[in-house]
Amino acid sequence: MEPAVSEPVRDQVAWTHLTEDIPRAKKCTVIGGSGFLGQHMVEQLLARGYAVNVFDIRQGFDNPQVQFFVGDLCSRQDLYPALKGVNTVFHCASPPPSSNNKELFYRVNYSGTKNVIETCKEAGVQVVLGANDPEKNFLTTAIRPHGIFGPRDPQLVPILIEAARNGKMKFVIGNGKNLVDFTFVDNVVHGHILAAEQLSRDTTLGGKAFHITNDEPIPFWTFLSRILTGLNYEAPKYYIPYWVAYYLALLLSLLVMVVSPVIQLQPTFTPIRVALAGTFHYYSCERAKKAMGYQPLVTMDDAVERTVQSFRHLQRVK
């Protein structure tokens, strides 16, 4: 039987008994805990002795150590039971990056986050990660990772391999030298937990935003090639000038717009994707290093190797 919306999946009396010896400072809720980042967050929090609630629109995994709450992020009535009695909230909920649904992004990332902040205040939560709303007795900070990847990633690697299987990974857009930040999921989790613990000790961090990266910018196409060759696929080897690719994508977008009254198309070759693949976009995490002592736990070499090993089921058989 499906759990009722806003009700905990696990028996509340049993859960209270299980966590009664854990101080409130180590009680937390992971919003979006059934997602890629959220699941890794839950695992690391449990390993550090936290009592963990998970709030999501669905229950993505089963763990007897976790109290699940299923509900709508934009419903205060659904959200409140998952936040009551916890000290810290990690807000990881977001639609997948590949989604083209603007209304969904607005509803989850803006309206949903606004509701999280308001409901946290009502529930007496003291620390919120993933939002910015500095206020006395209510501490928040925003963590800004870029290009999250790692084991169980449902987006980057599966989409990349599908494209390779369909013969769509033959071209490099631009000269292949554009540096990009890809960040291993364990480092993103580490940044979140470190920020929460530091924020509890140093309230001056409240209301600030921190970039969390691997601190190793890598050429975009080099990164993709390492994933592809690690799984026995060919790396892209033909070069197409950036401006040619961009204007072709723009022309295709205009064509899609013209025919949209008759037929609905969703091309994957779009100007924004060309820009992401062919331009520089990496960020300094010096502020996180200085303010809270952040250092990446996993190097890029180790991160790529762990990721490749975790996707052996997608490997090309020679």
Automatic annotation (TrEMBL):
Domain 3-beta hydroxysteroid dehydrogenase/isomerase: 126-237
Chain segments annotated as transmembrane: 243-263
Pfam families in alphabetical order: 3Beta_HSD (PF01073)
InterPro entries: 3Beta_OHSteriod_DH/Estase, Lipid_A_modif_metabolic_enz, NAD(P)-bd_dom_sf
Molecular function GO terms recorded: oxidoreductase activity, acting on the CH-OH group of donors, NAD or NADP as acceptor
One of the GO BP terms on file: steroid biosynthetic process
Domain of life: Eukaryota
Residue runs in coiled coils: none
Keyword annotations: Membrane, NAD, Oxidoreductase, Transmembrane, Transmembrane helix
Family listed: Belongs to the 3-beta-HSD family.
Name recorded for this polypeptide: NAD(P) dependent 3-beta-hydroxysteroid dehydrogenase NSDHL
Species of provenance: Saimiri boliviensis boliviensis (Bolivian squirrel monkey)
